[in-house]
Amino acid sequence: LHPQLVARGFFEECPHPAVGTHPMTTVPFRYATNREPWIRRPAPLVGEHNREILSEIVGLSDAEIAALAAEEIIGSRPKGLG
Fold first, then answer.
1. Confidence at residue 39, expressed as pLDDT on a 0 to 100 scale
2. Beta carbons of 10 and 28 less than 8 angstroms apart
3. Closest Cα to residue 58, out of 77, 41, 74, 79?
4. Is the pTM of the predicted complex or chain greater than 0.90?
5. H or E element: which one contains 68?
């Protein structure tokens, strides 16, 4: 990490459940009145929000979601990784 970018607050850390905590680049500017971090939550895991999106937004039933999972149309791991 470049010391100047570190000193200017160009990196933020956000813990991630799969990869841990690492410095991540953020926006290249800051507002004088807002010092809150830009990165507030980690990137989602594969399939983390499947049920929420498919049931609450798309309107699928539990049985329909289960059928998609059984047919490997949706899942929580990329195909071929176990």
1. 87
2. yes
3. 74
4. no
5. helix 62-70
